[in-house]
C-alpha cells in the first residue's frame, strides 16, 4: 500500500467512524415526544433547581417545572443571593400553582470552586425524598420529565441523566449551538453510553439519595471542578453505570452571539480536558476537517480526484448527521448545514484553546483553569 492509499483509507476510516456513531446513537435514541416507560411504582421525588438571574425563557421553564404529571414531587429553588431578581419570578409562579410543594432556599455554601454545586448543597440537604433530581434552571421540562428519568433507571444504574437538546434558536449563532449540542455532543454521548462508556451530564441528574449520602453525599461531587465529571467517576468507582434517558430534554436557546458560543464551548472543552484527558485528546479528530484534510493529501499524492474526494467526504459526514436530526425530530432548518460547517471550523481552535490555562466566566463567577486539574481554583467575580 502506498502513502496515497494510506491517507485515503485513513480519511475513509474517520468517515466510517462518524457514520457508526450516528447509527449507534440513532438506535439508542427515541424521537422527541416518544412516551416514557410505563412505571408501576412512582415514589416521591425532590427536584433541586439552582437558579441565578433572569434568562431568556425563565418564565416558561419555571412554569413547566410546576406542571409535571408526577403525583408527588417538591421543587427546591436554590439561590445564592437574596436580592436575585429571579426570586420574585419564582414566587409569582409558585402562587399560580399552590398545589405543588415548593421552597426557595437562599445562601452560598462554598464547598468547592464550582458555583453551581455550591448553590445546590442547601437543596440536597433540604430534600425530603429519597429520589433527587438536580436540574438546571434552563431545562424545558416536559410533563413526563420525571417519568423519563425514573424510566431510565436500571438495576446497574448509579445515575440517570440527560444531555441538553438545543431548540428555539434565534439567529445563526444559535443554530450553530444547536449543531454543537444535538448532532455533535448528544450523538457522541448516546453512542458512548450504548458502548458502556456512559458519562454524566449535569443538566438533569437523577440520584438515589441514600446511595450518594452513603458515599460522601453531595460534598463528594466537589472532587472535580465539574460536578458531572465527579459524578461519573464516583458512579464508576462503585461499579455502577451512568445511563441516559431515552430522549433528551430541550434547552431553548433564544439569541446567541459568536462570542457566547466560543466562550461556552471553550469552557466545556477545557473542563473535559482536565477531568477526562484520555477521552478528550481524540476530539481533535471530530468534524469534517480531519477526514477532508487526509483526503486532500491523498489527492495531492495521486490517489483520486478533487471533484470526487471532497463531495464524498462532505456527504459522508453531513448527510448521516442530517438524517439523525430528521429521524429524531431535532432542530433542522436551511441554516443547519452552514451551521455544521461553521461548528466544524471552530472545533480545532476550541480543542487547541482547551490546552491553555486562563480564566473562564461561569454564570458570573470568574474561575481559573490551569494546565492540569490540580490548578483549578475560584476567583469570585463579586457579589
TrEMBL record:
Keywords, ordered alphabetically: Glycosyltransferase, Membrane, Transferase, Transmembrane, Transmembrane helix
Q: Which CDD domains match?
A: Glucosylceramide_synthase
Gene3D superfamilies listed in its UniProt record:
Spore Coat Polysaccharide Biosynthesis Protein SpsA, Chain A (3.90.550.10)
Q: Membrane topology type, per the record?
A: Multi-pass membrane protein
Q: Which residues cross the membrane?
A: 6-25, 274-302, 308-327
- Single GO term (MF): ceramide glucosyltransferase activity
Give the UniProt record's GO annotations in the biological process aspect. Answer: glucosylceramide biosynthetic process
Pathway per the UniProt entry: Sphingolipid metabolism; Lipid metabolism; sphingolipid metabolism
Q: Which Pfam families match?
A: Glyco_transf_21
Q: Which top-rank group of organisms is this from? A: Bacteria
Q: Name one GO cellular component term.
A: membrane
User: Where is this protein localized, as stated in its record?
Assistant: Membrane
Protein name as it appears in the record? Ceramide glucosyltransferase
Amino acid at each position: 500500500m502506498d502513502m496515497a492509499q494510506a491517507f485515503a483509507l485513513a480519511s475513509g476510516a474517520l468517515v466510517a467512524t462518524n457514520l457508526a456513531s450516528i447509527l449507534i446513537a440513532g438506535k439508542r435514541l427515541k424521537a422527541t415526544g416518544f412516551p416514557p416507560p410505563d412505571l408501576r411504582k412512582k415514589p416521591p421525588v425532590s427536584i433541586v433547581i439552582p437558579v441565578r438571574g433572569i434568562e431568556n425563557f425563565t418564565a416558561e421553564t419555571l412554569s413547566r417545572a410546576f406542571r409535571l404529571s408526577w403525583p408527588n414531587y417538591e421543587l427546591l429553588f436554590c439561590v445564592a443571593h437574596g436580592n436575585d431578581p429571579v426570586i420574585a419570578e419564582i414566587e409569582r409562579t409558585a402562587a399560580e400553582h399552590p398545589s405543588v410543594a415548593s421552597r426557595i432556599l437562599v445562601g452560598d455554601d462554598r464547598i468547592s470552586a464550582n458555583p453551581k454545586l455550591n448553590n445546590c448543597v442547601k437543596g440536597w440537604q433540604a430534600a425530603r425524598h429519597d429520589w433527587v433530581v438536580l436540574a438546571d434552571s434552563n431545562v424545558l421540562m416536559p410533563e413526563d420529565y420525571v417519568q423519563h428519568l425514573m424510566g431510565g433507571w436500571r438495576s446497574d444504574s448509579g445515575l440517570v441523566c440527560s444531555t441538553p437538546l438545543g431548540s428555539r434558536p434565534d439567529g445563526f449563532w444559535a443554530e450553530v449551538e444547536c449543531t454543537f449540542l444535538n448532532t455533535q455532543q448528544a450523538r457522541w454521548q448516546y453512542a458512548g453510553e450504548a458502548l458502556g462508556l456512559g458519562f454524566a451530564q449535569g443538566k438533569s441528574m437523577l440520584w438515589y439519595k441514600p446511595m450518594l449520602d452513603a458515599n460522601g453525599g453531595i460534598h463528594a461531587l466537589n472532587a472535580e471542578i465539574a460536578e458531572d465529571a465527579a459524578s461519573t467517576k464516583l458512579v464508576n468507582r462503585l461499579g455502577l453505570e451512568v445511563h441516559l434517558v431515552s430522549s433528551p430534554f430541550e434547552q431553548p436557546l433564544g439569541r446567541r452571539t459568536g462570542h457566547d458560543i466560543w466562550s461556552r464551548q471553550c469552557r466545556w472543552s477545557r473542563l473535559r480536558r482536565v477531568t477526562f484527558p484520555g477521552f478528550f485528546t481524540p476530539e481533535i479528530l471530530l468534524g469534517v476537517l480531519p477526514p477532508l484534510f487526509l483526503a486532500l493529501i491523498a489527492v495531492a499524492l495521486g490517489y483520486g480526484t478533487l471533484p470526487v474526494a471532497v463531495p464524498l467526504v462532505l456527504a459522508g459526514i453531513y448527510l448521516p448527521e442530517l438524517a439523525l436530526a430528521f429521524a429524531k425530530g431535532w432542530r433542522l432548518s436551511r441554516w443547519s448545514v452552514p451551521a455544521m460547517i461553521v461548528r466544524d471550523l471552530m472545533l480545532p481552535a476550541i480543542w487547541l484553546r482547551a490546552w491553555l490555562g486562563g480564566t473562564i466566566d461561569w454564570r458570573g463567577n470568574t474561575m481559573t483553569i490551569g494546565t492540569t486539574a490540580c490548578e483549578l481554583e475560584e476567583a469570585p467575580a463579586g457579589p
